[in-house]
Amino acid sequence: MIFNFDQEISRENTASVKFDGRQQYFGTTDVTPLWVADMDFAVPDCVTRALQERINHPVLGYTLYPDSIYQSIIDWFQRRHQWNIERDWILMAPGIVPSLFAAVQAFAKEGEGVIVQSPVYFPFFSAVTTNHRQLINNPLREVNGRYEIDFEHLETCAKQGARLFLLCTPHNPVGRVWSEAELQQVLDIGRRYDLTILSDDIHCDLIYSGVKHTMLGRLAQPGDKIITAIAPNKTFNIPGLGLSALVIPDEQQRTAMKKIFESLHMGNHNPLSITAFEAAYREGDAWLDALMQYLEATRDFAQDFIAREIPQLKLIKPEATYLLWLDCRALGMSDARLRDFFVHQCKLGMNPGSVFGEGGSGFMRMNIGTTKARIASALAAIKQGVAGLTK
Ligand SMILES: Cc1ncc(COP(=O)(O)O)c(C=O)c1O
Predict the structure, then answer these.
(1) 53, 92, 170, 269: which has the highest count of C-beta atoms within 10 A?
(2) What is the CA angle 268-270-276, rounded to 5?
(3) Residue 98 CA to ligand 1 centre (angstroms)
(4) Which fold would CATH assign to domain 59-283?
């Protein structure tokens, strides 16, 4: 099957955060948007077809989760991740961010500690602070252009009475796929300090060749307190539909999460999200495999181009995700100046690294989930902008 990821699709005037939110976020619409983590590609045909079929039925009433959606999750994780999930373990949820917030409420009391690892996707912080829990940071360590977990410090964090650990796996924004050995160490610390671990695996299907992603939940033993958050949203470019799932083998923990959702009356979901979710997991394999080849070619192109043409920048080569973590520290700019430089000199809208917390200063996050041509011109604009700095 041929998939055309080179097709330019105009997303303006679709109420897209990435495109139509530019004025609000960057103060101008004159930037190529390479920020918000969605892609500019059309969703797989199987998703469009399923949605069209559903919309052909003219009633969009309250909808329950059909058995088939649970089965689509079980089959996908069995097929793609060799992880056997039981039907009873699955709790459907709105987006994954609401689940981060709910987990904080369910597993740590006010004032108790929750561990995160910066630099990390910013709602990991707000889930903790908005709920008045204590934020305990275990900053990732950068070792020769690759990030690692500081396990000694993680243990110190756990010792401080932390109740919950929000693990991002693969890690946004640094692109690490944690190895099985690293995940075993995480589990070991979790066991020794009776930590609940929320494993956010939203990027688990966006893995580049030569790298193996392991689901933490697959390594868990009975008695481990692991909650896995999954969704086809990033994988198949349907995040606007906002439906995800939690896999929680422990009954008590499942009940605790359910209680939080029920207290907010978050139960039913909409028929279109349910339809798209299931179609993607059922039939999306070939599209995803082609997508990853395309993204890998773009990532490798960017890596070569930056090394050759913009040696002032350093790319932290991602093992997963369509997000590039660009080390711009050698430009010697403050974060405000760096953002300004990319917006006004290069006309690019990227996420400043500083929003990802400690360790993010001097970095930018570039979203390559778009056509290769667009990334090529973005990189050419950076080259030109950087050259202009030295004139
Ligand atoms: C690690 C991580 N978790 C969650 C999300 C968003 O999840 P949702 O849109 O389902 O709330 C993102 C989006 O970028 C993410 O990178």
Answers:
(1) 170
(2) 125
(3) 10
(4) Aspartate Aminotransferase; domain 2 (3.40.640)
> What pLDDT shows up at residue 352?
98
pLDDT > 70: what percent of the chain?
A: 99
CB contact at 8 A, 312 and 329: no
Distance 97 CA to ligand 1 centre (A): 6
pTM above 0.90, yes or no: yes
Atom of ligand 1 nearest to the CA of 95: 10
Q: What is the mean pLDDT of the chain?
A: 97
DSSP character for 225? -
- Confidence band of 268 (pLDDT split at 50, 70, 90): confident
The binding-site residues of ligand 1, defined as CB within 6 angstroms of any ligand atom, are 37, 95-97, 121, 168, 172, 200, 202, 231, 233, 239, 244
Q: Which atom of ligand 1 is nearest to the CA of 94?
A: 10
**What is the Cα–Cα distance from 142 to 153, expressed in whole angstroms?**
14
At 219-260, the pLDDT tens digits run 999 999 999 999 999 999 999 999 999 999 999 999 999 999
Q: Are 183 and 219 in contact (CB under 8 A)?
A: yes
Total Cβ atoms within 10 A of residue 218: 17
Query: So where are the chain's domains?
Result: 17-44+286-389, 59-283
